[in-house]
Specification:
The chain has nine helices and twelve strands. A six-stranded mixed sheet has the order 5-6-7-3-8-9, sandwiched between helices. Helices cover about 30% and strands about 25% of the residues. Helix 5 (about 165-180) links the parallel strand 6 and strand 7 (about 185-190). It folds into two domains: about 5-220, P-loop containing nucleotide triphosphate hydrolases (Rossmann fold, 3-Layer(aba) Sandwich); about 225-285. The chain starts with a strand and ends in a 20-residue tail after the last helix. Helix 2 (about 90-100) packs parallel to helix 4. The chain is α/β, with parallel strands linked by helices. The chain has helices at about 45-50, 90-100, 105-120, 135-145, 165-180, 190-200, 215-220, 265-270, 285-295; strands spanning about 5-15, 15-25, 30-35, 60-65, 75-80, 155, 185-190, 200-205, 210-215, 225-230, 255, 275-285. It binds adenosine-5'-triphosphate. The site of adenosine-5'-triphosphate has 12 residues, from strand 2 and helix 1. Adenosine-5'-triphosphate binds near residues 14 and 43.
C-alpha cells in the first residue's frame, strides 16, 4: 500500500456554502501528518469525508486501499472533535466498549484498557466512573479508546484542545508511541508547536483548500530568514543594498530579510563604515510565522487572511 490516505480535490457543500473547496491530502504509511488550518478552514469536514461519515460532493478518497472508508472502519481509530462519553460507565468499560465498536472482543478490550490506563497515568482510575474524572482525564480515556483495537490509521481531530501543558506533552508521547508501533497518524490542530515537534509532513488548509503540502522544514523555508542587527548608534544612511534596513526601531534595531549572499557582505560594509555593531543574529521563521503568512493568525477569532503568497511544495 503506497498511501494510507490519498484524497484529491475533495469538496463538500452545505447549502450555499462550499465548506471544503478543494483539499488534496496524502498520508504515507507510518507517518504523522499534521492537518493545519484556522477555525472553519474545513478540517473537520474533510476528516469526516476521509472516514466515510460524510459523502464528498467532489473529488476522490482512498483510505487504507479502499475507496469506501466505512469498509475499513475496523482498521481506523478516530477521536472526534466533539468529546462525549457515558458518565455512568467506568473508564475500563468505556475503552473496551469503544474497542468493541471497532470489532475488538470485549474481554480483550478490558484487558487492554487496564494496561493502557495503567501505562498512561490512570491506574487509580481503572474502575472509576467517567463522571468522576476531570475533563482532561476523560479526554485521555477517549483517546485511549480510539486506538485500543490497534488500528493501522489513527485520525485525531484537535486532540490537544482542552488539555493542560503536562497532558499535552503526554499526548505527544502517546502519538509518537503509536507511530512507533507502526500506525499512520493524522491529527488536526491550530497549535503549531505540536505540529512542529511531531509531524513528518504537513497539510495546511485555508478557506477549504490545500495551501501547502510538505515537511516542517519545507514550510519554514517558505519565508526568508530575518537578520536582526543592533547598533550602538544609528547607521549613516541606508545599509548598502539593504533598503529594508532603513526600517529602524527606536532602540536601534534593524530587521531585514537575509540576502542570498548571506551575512558576509553586510558585515564587511558595517565594519568598513565604522558602525558599532552591538548584536547581529539570524532568526529563522517558525511554523507559526509561516502559518500566519499563508492563512492568517490562528489566534484571531475573525480568521483574517493576510494575503501573503501561497506556496505549494510537491509531496
Ligand atoms: N453540518 C454543517 N452544516 C452547515 N455548515 C457546516 C456544517 N459543518 C461545517 N460547516 C461549515 O463548514 C465550514 C468548515 O467547518 P469545519 O468544522 O470543517 O472547519 P474546521 O477547520 O474543522 O474548524 P474548527 O477548527 O473550528 O473545528 C465552517 O464554515 C462551518 O461553519
Amino acid at each position: 500500500m503506497e498511501f494510507a490516505i490519498a484524497a484529491h480535490g475533495l469538496q463538500k457543500r452545505f447549502g450555499d456554502k462550499l465548506a471544503v473547496a478543494g483539499v488534496d491530502l496524502i498520508a504515507r504509511p507510518g507517518e504523522i501528518l499534521g492537518f493545519l488550518g484556522q477555525n472553519g478552514a474545513g478540517k473537520t469536514t474533510t476528516i469526516r469525508m476521509l472516514l466515510g461519515i460524510l459523502t464528498p460532493d467532489g473529488g476522490t478518497v482512498e483510505v487504507l486501499g479502499s475507496r469506501q472508508p466505512l469498509t475499513v472502519a475496523g482498521r481506523i481509530g478516530y477521536l472526534p472533535e466533539e468529546r462525549g462519553l457515558y458518565p455512568a460507565m467506568t473508564t475500563r468499560e468505556t475503552i473496551a466498549f469503544m474497542g468493541a465498536l471497532r470489532g475488538l472482543p470485549l474481554a480483550e478490550g478490558r484487558r487492554r484498557a487496564e494496561a493502557l490506563l495503567a501505562r498512561h497515568g490512570l491506574k487509580a482510575e481503572i474502575g472509576a466512573k467517567i463522571r468522576t474524572l476531570s475533563k482532561g482525564m476523560a479526554q485521555k480515556v477517549q483517546l485511549l479508546g480510539s486506538f485500543v483495537h490497534g488500528p493501522d490509521l489513527i485520525i485525531l481531530d484537535e486532540p490537544f484542545s482542552g488539555l493542560d501543558p503536562v497532558n499535552q506533552q503526554a499526548l505527544e508521547r502517546i502519538i509518537a508511541g503509536e507511530r512507533a508501533r507502526g500506525a499512520t497518524i493524522l491529527f488536526s490542530t491550530h497549535i503549531m508547536s505540536h505540529a512542529e515537534r511531531l509531524c513528518d509532513n504537513l497539510v495546511i488548509v485555508g478557506a477549504g483548500r490545500t495551501r501547502f503540502t510538505g515537511t516542517v522544514a519545507e514550510a519554514r523555508a517558505v519565508l526568508p530568514a530575518q537578520v536582526v542587527l543592533k547598533t550602538g548608534h544609528p547607521l549613516n544612511g541606508p545599509l548598502a543594498g539593504m533598503p529594508a534596513a532603513s526600517a529602524q526601531a527606536a532602540d536601534g534595531t534593524y530587521r531585514f530579510a537575509l540576502p542570498e549572499e548571506g551575512l558576509e557582505p553586510i558585515l564587511r560594509h558595517l565594519l568598513d563604515s565604522g558602525a558599532s555593531i552591538r548584536e547581529i543574529s539570524v532568526e529563522r521563521p517558525d511554523l507559526h510565522d509561516v502559518f500566519v503568512a499563508m492563512v492568517g493568525d490562528p489566534d484571531e477569532e475573525d480568521g483574517a487572511h493576510v494575503g501573503a503568497p501561497m506556496a505549494e511544495v510537491a509531496p
